[in-house]
Specification:
Order of helices and strands: EEEEEEEEEEEEEEEEEEEEEE
Largest sheet: 7 strands, parallel
Strand order of the largest sheet: 1-3-6-9-12-16-20
Distance between the termini: 44 Å
Strand content: 35-45%
Structural class: mainly beta
Oligomer: single chain
Length: 202
């Protein structure tokens, strides 16, 4: 299946020039459990933003589904509890492709936060292609992206910039992977990409 956005420029959450429209979420979207592509009409023309309705990831993928997110700006995702992946939580065993997208200002959870922008939580495959992962935050691992439980992460022609892990000093814990964190013997491949100005504190 394929979802293509075509929002009229006269909608209230579109810029006057019609070049950018913002979708403000008021509750969690349904989990993505089937093969689907969600495609913007152009790079950075559509924003998907967690506005109200509590704490939740913007997109959550489950099962063995193959999902593509293309041309989106995803912001302010924040899963509740120990869940990981602010913008995209890949909790399945299939393939998730994040293509031509911008993931900014997301947070990797409310307790032991990991994967500020994206978390590959199972043994699935995550492909980040021609995308920007910037200014996301976590308190445990992976300010930008965390790859865990034997999953495979491929970062291709992308920017991983200014992401942060700030571990609570009072808890005596230490954070890791300001840009990318790889845990539990997962596989990470980085090709023609820039990883810079990421930070780990605590």
């Amino acid at each position: 299946d394929e979802i293509n956005f075509n929002i009229p420029s006269n909608q209230p959450n579109c810029s006057p020039d019609g070049l950018h429209c913002k979708i403000n979420l008021t509750k969690p979207l349904p989990d993505l459990s089937t093969n689907i592509s969600i495609i913007s009409s152009g790079i950075d023309k559509i924003s998907v933003h967690r506005a109200t309705g509590g704490d939740y990831s913007v997109f959550r993928v489950i099962g063995g589904s193959n999902v593509t997110l293309s041309g989106l700006r995803i912001s302010n995702g924040k899963p509740s509890g120990i869940a990981a992946g602010g913008a995209v939580a890949h909790d399945g065993t299939g393939i998730v492709n994040v293509v031509d997208s911008i993931l900014v200002d997301n947070f990797g959870g409310t307790i032991v936060a990991s994967g500020g922008a994206i978390a590959n939580n199972n043994n699935g495959t995550l492909n980040v292609i021609n995308s920007t992962i910037a200014d996301n935050r976590a308190t445990s691992t992976g300010g930008g992206i965390t790859n865990g439980n034997g999953g495979t992460l491929n970062v291709i022609e992308s920017l991983i910039l200014r992401n942060q892990v700030n571990a609570p000093v009072s808890a005596g814990s230490k954070g890791s992977g300001g840009g990318i964190s790889n845990v539990n013997q997962g596989t990470v491949n980085v090709t023609n990409s820039v990883i810079g100005d990421n930070f780990v504190g605590g």
